[in-house]
Amino acid sequence: MSPRAAGLEVRGLSVRLGGRSVLEDVSFKAPAGALVGVLGPNGAGKTTLLRALLGVVPFSGEVDMTGEIAYVPQSGSVNSSFPIDAFGVVAMARYPRRRWGWRLTSADRALALAMLDEVGLAAEARRPFDELSGGQRQRVLVARALAQEGDVLLLDEPLAGIDLPSQETILDVIAARCRRGALALMTTHDLAQAARVCQRLVLLDRVLIAEGPNEEVMRTDVLRRAYGTSLLVIDDGAVIVNDGAHHDH
Amino acid sequence: MITTLTIGFSLPTPFDAPYMERALLAGALIAIPLALLGAWVVIQGRAFFAHAVGVATFPGVVVGLGIPALGPFLGSLLAAALFTAVVTGLERDHRISGGAVTGLALSSAMALGAVLLVSVFGTATPVEAVLFGSLLAVSDADVTRCLIIAAVTVAALFFMHGRLAAVAFDVRWAAGAGARPRVVAVALPGLLALAVVGALPAVGSLLVSGLVVLPAATARLLVVRLPGLLALSAALGLAFSVGGLAAARLMDIPPGAAITTLGGIAFATVATGLAADAAVRRRPGLAR
Fold it and tell me: Could you give the angle at which helices B140-159 and B71-90 cross, rounded to 10 degrees?
């Protein structure tokens, strides 16, 4: 990770895909060292926002970002017929760094093993990826992102559908990176969890509904503008959102 | 020239005939790139495309045989390139992705070949050799081509390895990590088309996919890591090719059919053996 602090400022970001507006005029700031939750109902454009920041979907507007990006795509993006073990998946993070060729250096291998160890899977290094549990697989994919040594971590639903210990491990390693100056953006459907673990939130519904510290976004009137009738408000002010939690490809 | 340089002693039956030297060299040289490409084809689930690009060379070979100035090699190369460009281009349309374009291009190519064969170039064309290969059809030039194609393919696969692996495993992540999926999406079918064309004289257009898919699919049942898959696939491809050519000579059958039958038997044996093994392990009381 580079010594400079990672930071992100997005101004007027819009994405059109297939002639359809997916995101319109989204602006927000995210300071270095923060874990930022990206929230919104299905089809709100959360994944598209991450992919625009990655540079793999065309967008208009301005993105100021310091540092390299590391990425954890939504689960289900991997090809499970690919013959590979856990170590191989993490080591793959090092390939795009060398433009050509096959060999990993001993430093690459050491880094990949260290990242596997950090997510608690050093003992599973030689196990085939398709034999791991869902939570273990997700931890391997997070380790792959860590091995990219990025200053900006983009995580797409990294906690969806996995066991609680794996969720805790992943949140711990993200927090550790943030303490060292990285910036993490995480999309999620779990509002309660986002309120607990994130320092800032970005609430989307094709446009920016709200952004800022948790207490400014986690308000009934603000959430209702994104979630509409899916938002259930009970007497004491508790808020439950049922958005089906489907992935918004 | 290559043949006399490489094999300076007399070969045992069934490899003693001079044309067998050429067939053997061409078959062995081209089996390796085909099997290596086959590993990526199997991982990416593109076996149907691999079969189709072989069949699509049929009209090209017919035209090449009918126009001596063109020749079957250039004819088939043009047909394979055209097929690959059309299919990879049209498959981007999600309404007809998933094999529809490949399927219609495959049958169109077969039909075009049949029409050209009968109506334009006459029935003197050796159809069986075009479709199933011939031990007699391999020239010195073919052997040289196989050597060049093998060298180009192995080198390209080696240099692209990291990107290929990243894209084949997780294209979304690979795109974000700068692995250029579009380069891979063009390079892999392009190399496959080239290697398939190189194999045509010996194994024929209808069964060349056997040398692509069978070694890799058999190997995939036995290994769990990519380096092992590539190595075993290449070794099996070499064995199927040499063994099939020998069987073709001994039994006087078309080499493409012999190679593919051998590969099919090997795959079936491995698949059945593994299934039986798994069944025995599952039965209580029998396992240990």
Answer: 30
How many Å apart are CA B220 and CA B266, to the nearest integer? 13
Q: Angle CA(B24)–CA(B30)–CA(B35) in degrees, nearest 5?
A: 120
pTM score of the predicted model: 0.89
Q: Tell me how far apart the alpha carbons of residues B68 and B64 are, in angstroms, rounded to a whole number.
A: 6
Residues 13-32 of A with CB under 8 A from B: none
pLDDT at A215 over 70: yes
**Are the C-beta atoms of A71 and A54 separated by less than 8 Å?**
yes
Q: Which chain A residue has the Cα nearest residue B229? A: A83
Name residue A68's amino acid: E
Whether residues A96 and B166 touch (CB distance < 8 A) is answered with: yes
pLDDT tens by residue, A231-248? 887 776 767 676 655 444
Answer yes or no: do A96 and B223 touch at CB < 8 A. Answer: no
Structure tokens at A189: 């459907």
Residues 6 or more apart in contact with residue A123 via CB below 8 angstroms: none
How far apart, in whole angstroms, are the C-alpha atoms of residue A65 and residue A55? 12
d(CA B270, CA B277): 10
Q: Report yes or no: B9 at the A interface, CB cutoff 8 Å.
A: no
Residue in this structure with the two tokens 């190679």, named with its chain if needed: B259
Q: What is the CA radius of gyration of chain A?
A: 18
- Pick the residue from chain B with its C-alpha nearest to A142: B173
